[in-house]
């Protein structure tokens, strides 16, 4: 069933597009019944070209990353320099070794790692001592807020909902491979690092599509694998989330130390910092948070520039990286809490002239179902970004239609191929796309487009893409 859509198409738009039954409205009307749209398109002079419920509030999904990454550019200094302040460090504390995180999202234990490597810190310990007691993972640089308010609990076992920690390793994900057995009725072969205990309830079957499920209780260390995989099928490779990243990093670090001949006689220990009143900027009265001095490090990793991390965050829509950026933003004047990060975001939005009622956010990635934004609020921010000295660098982090990131397969072969630069967003019943497009006339238009209340199992993406192509054609 088609819905009537209220459109306001103004100025130089062709007559065919001005009518409620024009091509933009017709494109949006192809979406599944019940879908609710918000769209605003402005030209370079700030004049409205298209307006569909531009001041209504919508769930933005990963368009939330626009707010987080723009605030990172606005508050964290020169992001083109090496990230000296963010790297993990290691120190010897009595007989224990302490691995401490500082919010870096890219620390790696990969065998082929060449930059920002956990092995570098293990080498430093091995050069200093041949025996340690406990291996301590310390993520107290941020308060222990591993999941944001409003994130669905069912995402926790997945890579989309992995725990957020100042001590992050390998994106806080664990690879799992499921390979069919040699005979039907047998359990498939599971390949996974022994950090989790595996309960293999899956089965190899004679034929059919692979349907493997992964489940784990929050903070649980038992991974239950169910479902079926056919004889001769390609191995299924999946990555699952880690709930206590500091524990996992310390566990992995112990393995690296032992491989270097360091005798580890004690346990894996974690040091979290429980959140408290000092992590709330309102309760602090806006005063800066106190930061106690950190002990001298034996060695410290130096990650690449944060500009590259912003690129990963926006191009790939990487949730964990966005959440770590929010907490790092929150440590500029605060404690590194989610609330302190959001206070910095609101400060930037006020400077950009975004109305307070246009934006309410509860996380940095868009996984929270509590987030709400209006198309006008997003477009106002985007136009402000374009005027900043770092605006061009930030825009380069966005996916490009038909070219890369989450837009690599969208708009290819259309008039917007390589002519649309925008952040995507996808969540339950939600789809979003906001950024810039180059219209048929050569004009650059700023836009924000949201679809909410999409029926289960349906997609509004084709309608959204067709609408934006119609916008480009009409301008």
Count all strands and give the number: 22
* Sheet with most strands: 6 strands, antiparallel
Nearest-angstrom radius of gyration?
24 Å
Strand content: 15-25%
Measured as a percent range, the helix fraction is: 10-25%
GO molecular function: serine-type carboxypeptidase activity
Family: Belongs to the peptidase S13 family.
InterPro entries: Beta-lactam/transpept-like, Peptidase_S13
Keywords: Hydrolase, Signal
Characterization of the model:
This protein has eleven helices and 22 strands. It is α+β, with helices and mostly antiparallel strands and 475 residues long. 24% of the residues lie in helices and 22% in strands. The protein is globular. The strands form six sheets. The protein has a six-stranded antiparallel sheet with strand order 1-3-2-22-21-20, sandwiched between helices. The chain has a five-stranded mixed sheet with strand order 16-7-5-4-17. Strands 10, 11, 12 and 13 form a four-stranded mixed sheet that branches. A hairpin with a 2-residue loop joins β4 and β5 (96-100). The chain folds into two domains: 23-78 and 305-474, DD-peptidase/beta-lactamase superfamily (Beta-lactamase), CATH 3.40.710; 88-301, no CATH class.
């Amino acid at each position: 069933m088609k819905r009537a859509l209220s459109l306001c198409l103004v100025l130089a738009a062709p007559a065919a597009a001005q009518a409620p039954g024009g091509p933009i409205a017709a494109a949006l009307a192809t979406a599944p019944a019940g879908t609710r749209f918000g769209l605003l398109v402005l030209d370079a002079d700030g004049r409205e070209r298209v307006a569909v419920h531009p001041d209504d509030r919508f769930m933005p999904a990963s368009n939330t990353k626009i707010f987080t990454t723009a605030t990172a550019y606005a508050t964290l200094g020169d992001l083109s320099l090496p990230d000296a302040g963010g790297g993990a460090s290691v120190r010897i504390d009595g007989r224990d070794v302490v691995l401490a995180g500082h919010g870096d999202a890219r620390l790696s234990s990969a065998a082929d790692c060449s930059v920002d490597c956990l092995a570098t810190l293990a080498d430093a310990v091995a050069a200093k001592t041949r025996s340690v007691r406990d291996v301590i993972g310390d993520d107290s640089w941020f308060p222990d807020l591993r999941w944001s308010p409003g994130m669905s609990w069912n995402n926790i076992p997945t890579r989309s909902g992995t725990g957020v920690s100042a001590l992050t390793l390998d994106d806080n994900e664990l690879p799992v491979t499921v390979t069919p057995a040699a005979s039907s009725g047998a359990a498939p072969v599971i390949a996974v690092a022994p950090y989790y205990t595996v309960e293999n309830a899956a089965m190899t079957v004679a034929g059919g599509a692979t349907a493997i499920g992964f489940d784990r209780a929050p903070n649980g260390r038992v991974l239950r694998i169910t479902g079926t995989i056919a004889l001769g099928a390609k191995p299924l490779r999946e990555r699952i989330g880690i709930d206590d990243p500091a524990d996992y990093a310390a566990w992995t670090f112990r393995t690296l130390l032992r491989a270097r001949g360091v005798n580890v006689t004690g346990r894996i220990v974690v040091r979290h910092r429980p959140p408290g009143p000092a992590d709330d900027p309102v309760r602090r009265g806006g005063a800066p948070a106190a930061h106690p001095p950190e002990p001298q490090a034996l060695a410290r990793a130096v990650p690449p520039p944060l500009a590259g991390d912003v690129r990963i965050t926006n191009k790939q829509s990487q949730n964990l990286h966005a959440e770590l950026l929010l907490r790092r933003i929150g440590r500029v004047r605060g404690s590194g809490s989610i609330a302190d990060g959001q206070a910095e975001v609101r400060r930037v939005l006020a400077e950009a002239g975004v109305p307070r009622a246009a934006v309410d956010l509860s996380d940095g990635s868009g996984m929270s179902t509590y987030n709400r934004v209006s198309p006008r609020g997003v477009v106002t921010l985007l136009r402000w970004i374009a005027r900043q000295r770092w605006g061009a660098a930030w825009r380069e982090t966005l996916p490009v239609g038909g070219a890369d990131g989450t837009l690599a397969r969208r708009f290819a072969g259309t008039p917007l191929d390589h002519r649309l630069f925008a952040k995507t967003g996808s969540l339950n019943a939600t789809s979003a796309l906001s950024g810039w497009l180059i219209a048929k006339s050569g004009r650059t238009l700023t836009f924000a487009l949201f679809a909410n209340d999409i029926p289960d199992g349906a997609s509004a993406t084709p309608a959204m893409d067709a609408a934006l192509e119609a916008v480009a054609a009409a301008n």
